[in-house]
Design goal:
three-stranded antiparallel β-sheet; single chain; about 70% strand; globular; mainly beta; Immunoglobulin-like; six-stranded mixed β-sheet; about 130 residues
Length: about 130
Amino acid sequence: MPSKKLNFIFTCDNAELRNGKLYVGGIFDSINAEKYPVIHKVMVLVSNFDVDQGEQYSEYFRIVRDKKVVITNQEKPVELIAPSPRHQFIHRIFDLKIEELGRYDVEIYINNELAAKTYFEAKIIERGQRYV
């Protein structure tokens, strides 16, 4: 079985690879809205793993709230043969519907095994209140 080691995982507003570099904007761990449900226009999920070069991998993510899957790409996982020992996955999620306040777990699976986990919080913010 191919090996894997997590280097980092985070949610952000934008991420792209250019000239071998990862450019990231707006890393966050909470979504603030005046009321729920709310549509979060764009969320980018970024993860970076050390893997066995030349081995075949299947990767997918899930966003889970109270053990219920909110969104996943499990039906169409990313299939790849690792071209180098370090690999990044960048998932752009558009129009994510956040139904309620609370914690949302973000899970990354490689070869159908949970390989990384983080979370974000959905919070209420008063009109005119500054984000913290």
